[in-house]
Amino acid sequence: MAILSWFLNAITVLFRCLLWCFRLVFFMGPPQEQINHSTASSSSSFHSAPPSSSESCKHDVFLSFRGADTRNTIVDHLYSALVQQGVYTYKDDQTLPRGETIGPSLLKAIEESQIAVIVFSENYADSSWCLQELAHIMRCKDERGLIVMPIFYHIDPSELRKQKGKYGKALAKHKSHSKNVESWRKALVDAGNLSGDVFNGPETIFIKQIVDTISNRLPVAISSDDEDLIGIKARLQDLKSMMEMEPDGVLIVGIWGFGGGGKTTLASSLYDEISCDFDGSCFLKDVREESRKHGLPRLQKEILSLVLKLKTEEVIGDVDRLIKSRFRLKKVLMVLDDVDHLDQLKELAGSNAWFGKGSRIVITTRDNHLLTAHKVGVVYNISLLNDDEAIHLFSKHAFLEHEPVEDYAMLSKEVFSYAGGLPLALKVLGSFLCDKDMSEWMSALARLKEIPHTDIVEKLKISYDGLNPVEKELFLDIACFFRWQRKDFVMEILDACGFHPIIGVKVLTEKALITVSEEGRFDMHDLIQEMGHHIVRGENPKNPELHSRVWQLEDVAKMDAMKENDRIKALHVWFMLDEDIRPSSLPQVIGNMKKLRWFYWYEYPETSFSREFQPTELCYLSLEDSLVEQLWEGYKI
């Protein structure tokens, strides 16, 4: 009986295999119910996040094409060009793991892509696989907002719409074998009605144009980790509704709120989602600081470069005039982040008349008066996190979970009540308390209770107080001098100063006190930097000789040449002092700084240093564009 049972099972398996092969031969695909099941199950998991969301997308681009026509020509060249641009592209023969069934894998890859590029060629419709892909792509376009970009390679778009010639004959052949022909016909018509690229001219130029278009339509990832986006989705939806006002007009929208309240994160998320809908776009970060360091003409030039897609050196002429004239016929999205002075708005986005129909200018600021003075009619007052959002964000950093550990639940409620729903405070305090025991939590709470609710800087300082001495030195150096500087360069300097900074910098990152940008530069939140400045000035804000670090021109001017400045470890000054505030004995002031290990002065105004200048601990000296003719006599060891 066992042998008979085994024999019957073997016959059943063999019959199923023959049925599968029969379907593959005559229908060019697996059983329809399997495809439908695969599609349905994948579809249900993506309703909450469209393909443009980084949460659901594994691929930037999905390539749909007829291999026999284009695999070794335009598709191969396009794939290579996209990969070279850093665009993660799904191409079945390059990306599909060996042994996987092609149909379901391709359908899943479509759902996990942000853009579908369909290369329609003469024999595209001959393949039922291609038509199944096409139907699924168009379905994802309608249901999930998948971006579809058709390329018409040696065919006219009308062939898809009219379905005559080779496309008509191919569909006629499929009609006797498949129940899906009507859905394929509709998908072809819909795709033929889309705006696409018709191949003509040199292939290299054609491919470059396509790659540029794809790069511009992919979201620019400015926002950082997922935890930074907690509480953002509802606020983003409200802001997007405001952005839809006056669709044919030029709209300036202000985002106003506390420092550390999530203004930049909200603006970044908005930019990621909608920038591809504009002719040109730019996100200008840290306008307050960048304008102070480099001046507004530099920022105007950067805007022109980004919006017009030019290299900075290609922006030639009067930038003040260019920025008022070059965007009038363009639909532009511009984000001006952290604006603190009316002149910045006047010079960078002075009038609606500068921009074309449908343009949107987004301004983030802590100062609502600026928005009123600039006559910004639409202002979004960003709200602080509610209790559930605050618990979630705090727990992500304190426990690496979505909610507090049971034993710490009550303590957690006390901590985030003191953070007042401010995302930055929740993130910093949570990171500080991570891995701390109960007694350390109690100590931190006692400190928080002594600080006024409004004094966020003092609350953030609790995290600084938990650092060891070397970590504190590293933090203050980065806060005062090295924000936006390249990490590899800074690490060399810090290492030369004897800090051996690798572990310390890792700790600062884990404590959410510093970050490293995608370009490899140190960064931190404005309030964190403000805390660092506050710590350095300490109890002697009016006596810079008693500070460990000096970075303000005015502080140098206040120094007494007769006093020893042996507490100053680092001096970093950007510009030459004005004559009316420059001390008459500047060389003597510098000469008194015996403990300098870092000395940077752009356009140092004197020709020499005094003989008393003997910086035996100096590790770095830069006097770019200065008047110095001789540093000192003899050698320094």
From TrEMBL:
SUPFAM superfamilies associated with the record: P-loop containing nucleoside triphosphate hydrolases (SSF52540), Toll/Interleukin receptor TIR domain (SSF52200), Winged helix' DNA-binding domain (SSF46785)
GO-annotated molecular function: ADP binding; NAD+ nucleosidase activity, cyclic ADP-ribose generating
Location of the TIR domain: 57-218
Segments passing through the bilayer: 6-26
Swiss-Prot/TrEMBL catalytic activity: NAD(+) + H2O = ADP-D-ribose + nicotinamide + H(+)
Pfam families: NB-ARC (PF00931), TIR (PF01582), WHD_ROQ1 (PF23282)
Claim: Metal-binding is one of the keywords in the record: no
EC number, UniProt record: 3.2.2.6
Keywords linked to the UniProt accession: Leucine-rich repeat, Membrane, NAD, Plant defense, Repeat, Transmembrane, Transmembrane helix
The keyword ATP-binding belongs to this UniProt entry's keyword annotation: no
InterPro entries: Apaf_helical, Disease_R_plants, NB-ARC, P-loop_NTPase, TIR_dom, Toll_tir_struct_dom_sf, WH_DNA-bd_sf, WHD_ROQ1-like
GO annotation, biological process: defense response; signal transduction
UniProt protein name: ADP-ribosyl cyclase/cyclic ADP-ribose hydrolase
